Amino acid sequence: MASVNVPAGKVFLLNSLHFTGPCIPKPLLFTMDGEMIAQSDPNKWGKSENGVIPWLIFDQVDGLAIVGRGLLNGQGKAWWDIHCRDHPGPMMTFSNCGNVTLKSLRFRNSAQTHVLVMGSHNVYIDDIKITAPEASPNTDGIHITSSTAVSITHSDIATGDDCVSIGDQVNNVNVSFLNCGPGHGVSIGSLGRGGTEVAVENIRVWHVNFTGTTNGARIKTWPGGTGYARGIEFFDIRFSSVQNPIIIDQFYGCAPKCPQTRKAVHIEKVRYMKMRGTSATKVAMKLECSGESVPCSDIFMRDIDLSPANGIDSVSSLCSFVQGSAQGIIRPSSCL
């Protein structure tokens, strides 16, 4: 086993650092108990012909473990007033990696997304804490794309964007025992932008607490996409003053002036079970699917109990082009 150690009690100013495999020997262990900070001045970041160089990238590394109680501080405040296309990208990226463990680290104030999992498999994320101000733009906690077999568990995420976002070409993801908020919730999507073909399935979101988020359990797609998002399950979810506790939005990024199209990502086989708490908006369950040509299908609800948060008189549900069924107690009344 090869190892790298960042000792406790030490602070390191770190420029962009890329680890490219394959690595021999393996596994490769990073123990991070100290603090690593990025340059706070955007003008001091390295640049290439493709723009600002990202901070920490692990590429084509198999058998990687990053553990410890250390802090990675992106010092991103100076970036948040600059257009996101000029940002250095995620704080930590796993690209085309396999058999990865990320455990117990703390992440703070990334310029953009904190952790990106891309083109990877068998990734296990446990007991991490991610924080950024509620008003910080595009500071997703964890974004997953083109990956399979990813687990996120026993973690706390509070940022200015999605706590966890699941992009295209993703399957077999488990998100469990997560505290989310503030932020934009746990999102499947956005999917289908620019007419792309989508393949997302077997996503499980269990035992999650949403507090003061703009969304809770969210699926979002762009009009004109194709393919599917299916086999999605939200179970044992608690909401505290969440603006859109349960939402499917198939008009993401264009409402109310969306282009006319009969193409859409097909959302099917979605389960909402054992969900309770308070809604900070009057429409607590909003399922707005694409239309008659590609309705949402096989949507199931059981034991949903949502009440109005302080300042809200009552809550209701709204469904458009949804096929499904409900069992048990459903409050507000089901529109399925």
Task: Describe the structure concisely.
It is built from no helices and 30 strands. By secondary structure, the protein is an all-beta fold.
How would you characterize the overall build of this protein?
Pfam families: Glyco_hydro_28 (PF00295). InterPro entries: Glyco_hydro_28, PbH1, Pectin_lyas_fold, Pectin_lyase_fold/virulence. It comes from Capsella rubella. GO terms for molecular function: polygalacturonase activity. With 336 residues, the chain is an all-beta fold. It has a domain at 162-331: Single-stranded right-handed beta-helix, Pectin lyase-like (Pectate Lyase C-like). It is built from no helices and 30 strands. The chain has strands at residues 2-6, 11-13, 17-20, 28-32, 35-37, 47-48, 51-52, 56-59, 62-67, 71-73, 92-95, 98-103, 106-108, 115-118, 121-126, 129-131, 142-145, 148-158, 164-166, 170-180, 186-191, 197-211, 217-221, 226-242, 246-249, 266-279, 283-288, 296-308, 316-320, 322-331. Strand 6 and strand 7 form a beta hairpin. It is globular, with a radius of gyration of 20 Å. It starts with a strand and ends in a 5-residue tail after the last strand.
